Structure formats: structure tokens, C-alpha cells
Amino acid sequence: MKKVHNFNAGPCVLPKEAINAAIEQLKDFKGTGMSVIEVSHRSKEWDATMEEIEALWKELLNIPDGYRVLFLGGGASTQFSLVPYNFLEKKAAYLETGAWAKKALKEAEGFGEVVCVASSAETTFNYIPKDYTIPADADYFHITTNNTIYGTELHEDIDSPVPLIADMSSDIMSRPVDVSKYALIYGGAQKNVGPAGVTFVIVKEDALGKVSRYIPAMFDYRTHTKGNSMFNTPPVFSILVMLETLKWVKNLGGLKVVQKMNQEKAALLYNEIDRNPLFVGTAAKEDRSLMNVCFVMAEEHKDKEASFMEFAKERGMVGIKGHRSVGGFRASIYNACPRESVQALVDCMQEFEKMHK
Question: Rounded to whole angstroms, how far apart are CA atoms 77 and 259?
Fold first, then answer.
């Protein structure tokens, strides 16, 4: 197999151990003689899988009693509507830190009054706003903890006077999280915890049932808590790969170990960006993402962008082209991205620099 260094933003690199374990269960799921994609989701074998994966989420994130973990379809984009459906009675507050935060805010506007407490749009979302006031009369405050397109991240769990809701699609399981500070956490799996096709939702059960509107069954979180995420057929294979991915995280030593690994990988790449005169980081240093490292060619070297892209591609770098809305480069270095790949990218940047001195 060709050696590549996978920096795709999602779907992205996953642990080889998880992929190999999933392949075996594609052949024979728990000795049933059937593939995991053939077995009934009402079988005792699948019931046990669902119990195991929820328990593992609770263990790794130290989720308190009173919370449920759901595994749904539709991606995080569907949650942009389900959140206001279930939580917005009169007014909601949003922090606008990027394209996905902006989309979430726009969806909520169809359900009631929405206040944007702060935005970094005026500087192309290159920092996380900090001086803002959360309205005390808001039904909830929504944040996006990591911004894949612009490379910014909230590194700590904030305090909110109203129920806090977070889209953690691209940094969940990359660090410990104080779940007790949140009413709901959600995200697409295809960054740190599995393949595309399953959405995780961590919800505080007593935060539900507060709105007066009718909520269709499939859009009501209570439907899925009562049905143990099996009100309808769940995305079984994606859930299975998620389970194997979380086993890998546990075997590494848990989230404190993973956080240290991620900090070291990010420091390795950011240090090279700051040192190398050919490149410039785009995010404010205090808000730099540990998951998505965004950078561009220095102004006087803009003409070398295509040349570096081709140079890196020839050396096995995959997925480093920046999002089409911002250009430049983006290296997504999620949990399963090995330090070896980050070092290979740094070596590539240094080699390119020597060629253009």
C-alpha cells in the first residue's frame, strides 16, 4: 500500500487498530455467522454493543449521572435544527466563530429570537471573541468549540449563566471535558471518533421537555433517550467503528494522554510555521486549534503556493489544501494522525525552504 500522510479534515485518518477490528466484524459479528451490516439491530448482540459504546463514552468523558449519549443519523447539520426545536422557547444566544457556527445560528432563527453575542467575522474568523455578555434570559447559549475551516478553538469549558450547548464535531475526545457545564454536546463522528454516518449527542435529561411546541417524534431527543438510540434503525457499521475507535483511545490511556499527544503534535507544526519565513499562521496564537492547523505562504512568497502544494503531494502529504473559502493550507491533525506524519510535513516544509533560499 502506498505510504501517505493523511491530513484530511473529515472524513479523516482513523486508527488502523479500529479499522482492522471493524473489518473482522464485517466478516463475522460476535460469532453470529453474519456480518455486522446484516445482523438485526434488535438482536442481543447488538443490544450489548449499544450498551458498551454508551458506557465507554461515559467512562472516557467522565459523564455525570443524569446524562444520556445518543447515536443518531443526519450529521451535525441536522442538529442545527434539532437544538432549537428542543430548547428554544423564546430566545437563544449564539457565539459566531466560523462557518458552522453561522449555519447553526441561521437555522435557529426559524424557531424564535436569536442573539449573536459576538462574532469574529470581520477578520475572517481568525480569533475567538472573548468580551461578550450572555443574555440571562436566553433559553440557551450555543458555541462551536473548534472551527475546522479557520483553525481556531476554545481550549477550556466556559461558564454560562444559561444552559450551554456545544457543537464539538471536530475536537470531541481530544481533551478532557467538564460535561456537567453543558446541557447538550453534539457532533458528527468523522473527525476523532469514527467514520461519517453517525452523530453523537450527549444530553442532560432534565434539560429536555421545556418547550411548548409540538416536536415530531424523530426530532425529539426524548424519543431517542427512551428508545436507546434505536427508535429507528441506527447506522450500525458507523457505530461499530466508533466503538473500536474509542477502545483505541482507552488503550492509549484516556483523554489526558490524548490531550498531551495532541498538544505536542500541534506545537511541532506551529513552531515550524512560526520559524519558517515561507509560511504564516492565520489564527490568533492564543486561539490556535490543536486539531486544524491553518497557514498560508508569506506575502512575498505567494507565487510559490501551487509549487509547495505539488511538492508536498509528491512526498505523500494528502489533504493539506485549505478550505475553498480561505485558501492556503490546512493540516488536520486529529487524534489518530501520528506524530510521524506531522514530522514528515515539517520536514517537507524545511526541505522546500532550503530550495528557495
Answer: 26
